[in-house]
Specification:
- It is built from 1 helix and 8 strands, in the order αββββββββ.
- The chain has a 4-stranded mixed β-sheet with strand order 2-1-4-6, with no helix packed on it. It has a 4-stranded mixed β-sheet with strand order 3-8-7-5, with no helix packed on it.
- The longest helix has 28 residues.
- The termini are far apart.
């Protein structure tokens, strides 16, 4: 008959290397470089979202890639629009009630200023690279 103490010692050498592998792999994972946020001139996302809150567009300026689809979501209790400032209008949402959304795909590079037709002091810009 084997004592419980001897049995535990016999198992420990088999478990210890496994713990070492887990520890080493955890350290290697922590040492991997993390992706850095994009800065000006670097790749931009191919989708984007703008929230309408407290009578502002957030972010006020959004940079995306050509072909990106941008969605605006109204989080205010008041209706708002997303209206292109260009002539002719590149896009116009119509009135968006609370939690309503409007999306537009920007196919060409450029700068696209817009505003809320109900509250013209609310402005934003989409930069397409």
């Amino acid at each position: 008959m084997q004592s419980p103490h001897l049995r535990t010692r016999a198992v420990q050498p088999r478990v210890w290397p496994g713990r070492l592998v887990i520890t080493v792999s955890s350290l290697l994972t922590l040492a991997l470089p993390l992706p850095l946020p994009a800065s000006a001139g670097e790749a931009t996302p191919n989708t984007g979202a703008v929230h309408i809150e407290n009578f502002t567009f957030a972010p006020a300026t959004l940079t995306v890639k050509a072909g990106a689809r941008v969605t605006w979501i109204n989080r205010d209790d008041e209706p708002h629009t997303v209206t292109s400032a260009s002539t002719p209008r590149a896009f116009a949402s119509g009135a968006l009630d609370t939690d309503a959304a409007f999306a537009f795909t920007f196919d060409k590079p450029g700068t696209y200023p817009y505003f809320c037709a109900v509250h013209p002091h609310m402005t934003g810009v989409i930069v397409v690279k």
